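Annual report, structural modelling task.

Input specification for the 2-acetamido-2-deoxy-beta-D-glucopyranose complex:
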Amino acid sequence: MEANYKSVNDSRQGLTPNHPYGAGDPYYAESTGYITPQAAKKRGISNWIKIGVPVLILIIVAAVLGGVLGSRASKNDSASSNGASGADSNSPDGSGNSNVDLADSRFATATDSQWLEPLYPSTTNTAVLTTPTFRPTSNDVLSWPQDPFTFSNPSPTSLRTDRPRLIAPAYKWQALPALISNDPYLRGWNDTIFANATRYYNEPPVQYFMDGPSGILDNARDVKRRIKTFGYAYRMTNDTRWVDRTWTELQNAANNGSDPWGSPPDMNDLWNKNHFLDTAELSAAFGIAYDFFYDIWTDEQKSMIRFTLLKYGLQPGLLVYTDPSAATYGWWTNNITGNWNCVSNGGLILGSLAILGDDDTGTAEAILSHAIDNAKQNCAFGVTSDGTWKETPNYWYFGCTGHAEMSSALLTATGSDYGLSDVNPDFGKTGLFHMYSNGPGSLFSWGDHGPNKYSSTANCMFHYANQYQQPSYALFQRDQHDAPEPWSMFWYDAKTGGAFWNGAPLDHFFDDVNDQWASMRTSWTDNDAFLINIKAGRNDDHQTHNDLDCGDFVMDALGTRWFGDLGSADYRSPDYFSSGDQDAVRWQYYRKMTEGQNTILINRKNQLVSASPTVRHDSTNEAQGSSTVYTVPQDSTAFFVADMSSAYDDAQTVMRGIRFLNGRRQALLQDEINASGTVDWRVHTNATVETSGTSATLKLDGQQLKITMLDPPEGATFATGAAERFASDVTPPVPDQPNPGVTVLSVSLPAGQYTLQMLINPSWPGMKDSDFVTPKTVPLAQWDLRSHD
Ligand SMILES: *[C@@H]1O[C@H](CO)[C@@H](O)[C@H](O)[C@H]1NC(C)=O
Ligand SMILES: *[C@@H]1O[C@H](CO)[C@@H](O)[C@H](O)[C@H]1NC(C)=O
Ligand SMILES: *[C@@H]1O[C@H](CO)[C@@H](O)[C@H](O)[C@H]1NC(C)=O
Ligand SMILES: *[C@@H]1O[C@H](CO)[C@@H](O)[C@H](O)[C@H]1NC(C)=O
Ligand SMILES: *[C@@H]1O[C@H](CO)[C@@H](O)[C@H](O)[C@H]1NC(C)=O
Ligand SMILES: *[C@@H]1O[C@H](CO)[C@@H](O)[C@H](O)[C@H]1NC(C)=O
Ligand SMILES: *[C@@H]1O[C@H](CO)[C@@H](O)[C@H](O)[C@H]1NC(C)=O
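The model returned the following structure:
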């Protein structure tokens, strides 16, 4: 099929009211999305083959961007609400005359205001997307040239001879302007990066601020983000004002600026090595500055940058591998399979690679001889056998940024990443973990959320798309709000045409014993989709970033999140991170204790840290097609059942199951409990809740959802309360954070044996009362795909 080269530079501005930064933000101002001649190239295979869904059929789908805008403006008449529309995703629209290969425009041109999730066209109208949508083109206009430098026998100390050597080599800078002019994503990101550079330019240098448990990490990441951005602006323009501004920032973080770099307790430790992430991020920042501006720094400036980088970063850094007395701040080298290891080794590697060859102290070379191996043994195993980041979905951002930066920098500087990408054969699945963690209501954000992200993004997805031949990772990430960033410009392969959702299974089950979680949804592209993400898994071995939360779940529908997580408590709270043992103070804080989760509480006691649940699940295995409008078949379903008995002291049995019913328009949450202590069923919601005996009506964001108890046990009625601890709980060392706007919907019962069945009915537009079903009671042990028909 031949595409028409039609401009789709249309009324997308209609989306700006939803835009968090206001109309005129460059992320929106661009997006001209001209359809380029490359659209004609159509050839490819599904990249979901690894998870078993080849895409072979030709599907034609419609979505005219103009039409989309109208419908998004008014949520209630969105044609995309699950199940409520009769939209036939498989029929050509018939209009014939504006066949737009959506792969060649910047497709999701806005994000929703609340969660910054991309908004995709949601009406069938006149634009057409055809499969195969994975369409690598061989067109040179979108290709990076061949690296002129060949590494015959890679070694960490045998370097490419030109600069920059970190992540963005010179030949890519030379090619970039042409790629930008031919690719709408690169074009938009370039604009946003320049706008950010200008904004940072006009701000004073980053102020040192010691916030306690996170040290000066925000400052360090802010410096790194600025330097990357200034470096980008400089190399794209040769305008020396970016050089001067970078120098000012470096001087400031070296305490040589016109104002002091805060008041560090130890003037010989400006970068706070005792919270080594800070040291590592500043080392990366100085390394990038050294390398990106290498051609323009004077020898004296280079020597000053090296001096500061060595003194406050690399020299204390080397000791963590060589001097046992440095273990107090180098503990993260020892069996820490989490973001600390990735970020810390990563920063030291970037800083070392930058000055290698100019460093006559031997420090950089010595660091490389330790840091790469250390990262391979630890950082690379932050990913479990199913691709899940062990810490939490939010900590994945820090870990993957550190991992991708060091892998990429080693590749560009020396020609190999020495196994960082494949020493853990399951690492490449981590892009799937990130995609399924995301829903229309944002992340399934169990456990701690982490500090501000600043220089940490999900753009490792672009690097992993290349490393693991998973174009869908790049296709997913390119529509995300955090895509515009210098690394994306070099990691993104503009030849990756297509739609990540095309052939994407709706459901995925992550079975590693560490996490055991399920993601089940009705669509990848409908902001109103029905999504259930639920976990069981272990309550330990998450680097003390988890909650005691087997059975916890989130639920999105009708464009909002009905049940969500409370996130981090205050990291400054005493003993927040000291221990994950059963009696740890951490578990006294409401947001970390079982009470603060969407799960079952027995005897008003925390779940056991030693929990080892077992799970069972199944799915009818639908995959979305090329259309952004997708309606599941009526017999489509998926379920997840966890035996969580091992998480409880005072219960013989606690089983939880959740499933879709009625063509995924309803859900059933069922708990089977035999407890010798009291039973509390609890969920946390931002909705206003009205209860009436055994039913509850939730209202949120102009939408409604109803929960009805089926076959309620005697005495079971819904109650509501504040999201705060019971008076009978142990009092933590400092008061909990309030959870304003959050209501706990609960059912409390004495010790005994119960089956609690909660039928969950979102009020889909156009769905009549008679369209809802009431399922029969089926014990969890007998749940299967057809058990509720
Ligand atoms: C990148 O963006 C800047 C600012 O919008 C613009 O001036 C420049 O021309 C863009 N670069 C390319 C290659 O298009
Ligand atoms: C910047 O200078 C370099 C080196 O002289 C040159 O190769 C490059 O084309 C220049 N870039 C711009 C945007 O002027
Ligand atoms: C900061 O000042 C110290 C002391 O004069 C000097 O040794 C160092 O090179 C300077 N570093 C930078 C980045 O200016
Ligand atoms: C490393 O940590 C894991 C738990 O995170 C533990 O099971 C394992 O025994 C530790 N290994 C060593 C060598 O300490
Ligand atoms: C650019 O600015 C936007 C809006 O403030 C921000 O969300 C984004 O993180 C910035 N990106 C970079 C790379 O600094
Ligand atoms: C409440 O809404 C916020 C986002 O606006 C979300 O992060 C949080 O998880 C929600 N809380 C609950 C309990 O649903
Ligand atoms: C419920 O648990 C008690 C022990 O607390 C046990 O005696 C009883 O047999 C259990 N009931 C069932 C049906 O498993």
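The mean pLDDT is 86.
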